[in-house]
Amino acid sequence: MIKKIIEIVEKIDTSQVFSELSDAQSGGICVFVGTVREFTQGEQVVSLEFETYEKMALKEMDKIATTAVTKWNLNKVIIRHAIGLKNVAEPVVIVGASSGHRDACFEACRFLIDTLKETVPIWKKERFENKSVWVSAHP
Question: Taking Cα atoms as reference points, which of 32, 41, 111, 38 lies closest to residue 71?
């Protein structure tokens, strides 16, 4: 049975993703975790703040997951994005896939994060020491 986990959350717990993607039919699990980096375009980041139109975001995330499951014959897939204020080094997004073979889950994982960044309505405010700027989190 194919399992999809699609969520918008306040906090991402990276420790649970392995058990969520584990499957007796899967010989490979691939995970990408995106975090708040300390510098953006040479400026030191204090924190990021994420907002979303949740209903639309979840719908788009589900479409991405369904496409990946079909294209790469995945057993399980996860797309989880955080909202709210996040500090440097804190995880903000996690995507993952499990499949019978490693090539499929590597390719699917790259597709999941790249497509999420392109299509899901999530916005971030970059907070620096002397200013803050709203930008599309996923241009």
Answer: 111
- Each residue's pLDDT tens digit, 41-77: 899 999 999 999 999 999 999 999 999 999 999 999 9
- Specify the pTM: 0.94
Q: Tell how strand 43-52 and strand 28-35 pair up.
A: unpaired
**127 pairs with which residues across the strands?**
47, 132
Ramachandran assignment for 115, one of left (phi > 0), alpha (psi -120 to 50 degrees), beta (any other):
alpha
Cα angle: 127, vertex 133, 138; to 5 degrees: 100
Q: What angle do CA 125, 129, 133 make, to 5 degrees?
A: 25
Model confidence pLDDT, tens digit, residues 31-46: 999 999 999 989 999 9
- Is 60 within 8 Å of 8 (Cβ atoms)? no
Phi then psi for residue 11, to 5 deg, are -140, 140
Token output for 10 = 């306040």
Q: State residue 135 phi and psi, 5-degree precision.
A: -140, 160
Dump pLDDT digits (tens) for 98-135.
999 999 999 999 999 999 999 999 999 999 999 999 98
